[in-house]
Specification:
By secondary structure, the chain is mostly beta strands. It is about 0% helix and about 60% strand. The longest helix has 9 residues.
Length: about 400
Amino acid sequence: MPASSVASPSASAAVRSKPAAGPTVEDLFLRFTLFNQRGRGFQSKAGPPAGPGSENLVVLQPMGQLGLRGSNPRWSHQVTFALDVISSASADGLDVISSASRYNEAGELDVTTTYDGGERGAWSVRYGLHFEEPFRSGFAGLGWVGRYFEDNTTVAFNTMYVLDIFDYIHPLGWSPVGQEKRLTVSNNLGVTQVLSPTTLASLSYGVTFQAGTLQTTWNSVAIEDAPTANCPNDVGQAPAYDCPNREPERFPNTRTRHALAATLNQHVPRTRSTLKLGYRFYADDLALRAHTPSVQLYQWLGRRMYLRATYRYHWQRGVSFYTVATRTDNSDEMPLTADSDLAPFTAHQLGLKSVVYLVPPGGVRGVQYLDAGYSRYQRSNDLHVDVVSIGYGRDF
């Protein structure tokens, strides 16, 4: 889950000086995003019995965000809502595999309520629901932001609890177990420091603990020495989902994840450019390690438009129990996965976004803008994702 949002130092000052008024809408943001994923992975049965199978996925996502301020100006609310329409080989009822081309819908409501206590810091409560077939989720958390040394130093902490409840769907497309549960607890601490009028640095650390059913229950692993009668490893065959040469993936009952991130932002007033350098290190107790450096360049073109170019590189070592196939004599208690997301791989992501202001900043009226973006994510293990988005935002 992303960190809870809080008011910026400048916004906080404005709140403290603003007289009390009735409930008002402060800002509105709308976005439509298309995700088009193509690739193949050994966890998917949408292909030959020995794999790899299709990971093709199309997601249409309209979403919106509304900023509200109560009659007491110290209280504010950020309401985010999203709806996903998905066409893929993901779960759609109990016939998850045999109806791989069907559509599935997912929705989420995410609310953050913030109280700005001035010198005592800003406290926030985040809560919401996520639902899709066959998955339901609820989350709640608490956050705090303190500002020190004339707002030059910001310290932020948040904790989040997530409970997922979902149907156990076997790779054969039936549910012998019923409902499963997964609990996630995440704690994050961050520090942001103004180094100069044009330089900003931040450092954050997060630790996440998960318990319950952690595997994707319909993911499967090929059994290389299983009988293959009537199940030829033929790319052109019709999917034979009752083939006995696959079994579900298995995970440990707990997982602890650590993430350390640092960013450096440098603005160049002469050229109206901003450079953002980032690095993230990830490690967990399943032996997965990942390094992710990134760079972003913002460039203003006149008063009403800027461009943002992004590049991100990702390298990871897969979990210790990743494999493309297992054998019949392996223990049923041994962790096992063929999920391409948990395999060793490298990835590159390139993106470009443009923002055009219909009403530019600094005027009497509230800001209004349109944005459009495209990014390409390419992985070394046969997967790529194209993302196209358009958005509209305004302040009131």
